[in-house]
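Issue 218. Parser rejects a valid record. Input:
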Amino acid sequence: MPDAPPNPPAGAANPLAGAVGPLAGTVVRGAGRGRGLGFPTANIAPDPGAAVPPPAIYSGWLARRATGTVHRATVSVGTNPTFCDTPEIHTEVYCHDTSDDLYGERVDLWLVARIRDTERFASVDELLLAAREDVRRSEVLLDSAHGRLVLAAARS
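Output the parser choked on:
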């Protein structure tokens, strides 16, 4: 997965080529921490044999098979290092434009670009500041020419 340019200006096109996706899976229950922090996430259990990208924060599109709806997303793939609660790799998706209950739904996750590495923060407040910046950067990447190309693939 290509890296996003550092701090892309608002409205700038993403010059990166090639999307990774879709990552198909089912939305399952997680720890529930995201909702309490103001960032409810859909925890994706990837299909067996699915190629899960390396741990990082990504921008992407979440396509719901049941409704055909595609949502703007910021994606975390990793072990939740700030909370140190498991060595397991999780795929967690924050949808920017819905707070629907997605439990049990089959979804396809189309990644647009890698935003940054996952990291352990000293506090929940630092994590929340980074998450807000991740969503801001994700929005710029989703609105780029490359992001729109990936959206077209997600809708097809």
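Fixed in the parser; the record now loads. The helical segments are 33-36, 124-142, 145-155.
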